[in-house]
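Exercise 7.
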Amino acid sequence: MNDSSPTHKKALLVQSMTPQQLDHCDDIADDFRGNLVKKYELGQLAHGGNLWEKRCLQSAREEAIDLVTYLYCVDRDLASIRLIVAQIKGELMANEHYDKTSLIDLLNCINALAHDH
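Solution. The predicted structure, written as C-alpha cells, is:
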C-alpha cells in the first residue's frame, strides 16, 4: 500500500480521532445507512425501475430546494428556542419567582424538535 492510497489516508484520519469521535461517526453512518435503505426501498415501491438508468437532475434540483426550505424552517425553530431561553434567563436574573409557563414552552419546543421526523 502506498502512502497516497485512500486506505492509508483513512487510517491516518482514524488514528487522530478519539474513541468518542469514532463512535459518533459510526452512529451517524449507521443511522444514515438505515435511512438510505428505507428511502431507497420506498422509492422502488413508488417508482420501480433502476435508479441508475433514470435521468435524476430535475429530481435532484427539487430535492435541493426542499432541503434548503427545511434548513430555513429548522433555523427559524432554533431562533424561537433561543428567544424563549433568553426570556427565561432574563426572568431568572430579575426575579427568582419566574413564570413557569416560559420554561414549559421551552421544553415543548425542545421536545418538538427532538421528535421531528
